[in-house]
Predict the structure.
Amino acid sequence: MKKKLLKISLVGKTNAGKSSLINNIIGETVSITNKKINTTEELIEGIKNIEDNQLIFYDTPGLNFAKDVNKKNKKLKKNLWEGLNKSDLIIYIIDISKYNQKESLNYLDKIKELKKQIIVVFNKNDLKEKNFALPIIKTLSNSFKIDSFFSISAKYNLGVDYLTQYILTKTYNAKWIYSNEEISNKDDIFITNECTRNAILNSLHKEIPYNINIINKKYKFLKNGHLKIRQNIEINNSRYKKIILGRNGDKIKEIRINSQNNISKILKTKVHLYLTITILNAKEI
Ligand SMILES: Nc1nc2c(ncn2[C@@H]2O[C@H](COP(=O)(O)OP(=O)(O)OP(=O)(O)O)[C@@H](O)[C@H]2O)c(=O)[nH]1
Ligand SMILES: [Mg+2]
């Protein structure tokens, strides 16, 4: 049998549920999800092989196409366009509980320039009554050439199989890019670093989570099968240290336990996680 391929980018505003949908389709956590904005920063590829078909999903950073001035947004934007350019098909995900017509029309206006097939997915349909989508479908398809519309809940796994089956009809004859066992372009070290970043997003507020880097220092399976991980939380401002540590170290403890539990769940093994805070251009503390 001939191998078939399809490259799909998932785009949409931050928090629309792009990473949730990828994880649901792949069946494993390849991209972290969080209720905070701009959770995904890198271009993450999730791979799903179904019989002779290889589906490659690009999870892009959620962005509006507004003019961005800061350096961080420039990086996110570059990763977004990289995913869009590489793909054969674009899935535009809309959080239906926060639908904004003007915004969606603007978004579609930008992505139509890429001249790729576009599927519109209404996500979080668990939060909406039935038939909400009909007038929206009418408006969007009057203005744009949309291949098809789907209504799903990525979180509660409603309509996702149906969407996947439809995507499968779009594959074309081509060599696979990834081998049979691979599920992501990122390795386990990346996802374990991301778990700590996610725990920090959950525990801390304001700008701090967006100004840290997680660096892996040790990743070792012990004889008993447990996994030992050391990570540095790299900050660029010494005043963040106190905030991350918390009173009597209770914040860093909470972050460590949350991340450790999550890694353990994803990698299905007992994990011993050690965290150190380091300040960029300063010695370890
Ligand atoms: N109720 C409900 N919540 C959902 C659904 N899908 C995702 N969420 C939640 O929405 C939040 C954002 O989901 P993500 O998958 O991280 O969103 P994203 O589009 O990847 O966001 P960025 O990475 O910031 O661009 C998380 O708290 C998810 O649990 C859904 O179908 N229903
Ligand atoms: Mg994401």
About this structure: The pocket of magnesium ion (ligand 2) is lined by residues 18-19, 31, 39-40, 59 (CB under 6 Å).
